[in-house]
Design a protein that fits this description.
By secondary structure, this protein is α+β, with helices and mostly antiparallel strands. The chain has a single domain, classed as Alpha-Beta Complex (UDP-galactose 4-epimerase, domain 1). Strands 1-4 form a two-stranded parallel ribbon. Strands 2-3 form a two-stranded antiparallel ribbon. A two-stranded antiparallel sheet has the order 5-6. Strand 5 and strand 6 form a beta hairpin. It is elongated. The two termini are 14 Å apart.
Length: 120
């Protein structure tokens, strides 16, 4: 598993079932037509809680019961230290804020939540 830089970069990892739930909510969303008669919006979907790459590796090791084979690489030019989804618009239009993530963070990493067992 390649890790670029020191592994402290944070990313907004999201369980696939949660993204599917957001997509289905977007499909059900009733939008107002614009001046040309089209009705469309762009929504950010995600967890909006970044996780460090090294934390993700620890979680994968815990869930699989196997030690990850990590290949350290130089940081990539232009790579951001932290990224996450801004869910403000999704919360307004899709009630995405009332949605509960399938992943719950605990002191040992991540544990599957209400959706079920992760497919790692």
């Amino acid at each position: 598993m390649p890790i670029f830089g020191d592994g402290t970069a944070g990313r907004d990892y999201t369980y696939v079932d949660d993204i599917v739930s957001g997509i289905l909510a977007a499909l059900d969303c009733k939008l107002q037509a614009d001046q040309q008669g089209g009705a469309y919006e762009v929504f950010n979907l995600g967890r909006s809680r970044p996780v460090k790459v090294v934390e993700l590796v620890k979680m994968l090791e815990r869930v699989t019961g196997r030690k990850a084979i990590v290949e350290r690489r130089d940081a990539q030019a232009g790579d951001l230290a932290l990224t996450w989804a801004d869910l403000a618009k999704s919360n307004r239009f899709l009630a995405y804020g009332t949605w509960k993530s399938s992943w719950k963070k605990d002191s040992g990493g991540f544990t599957p939540g209400i959706v079920g067992t992760p497919h790692v």
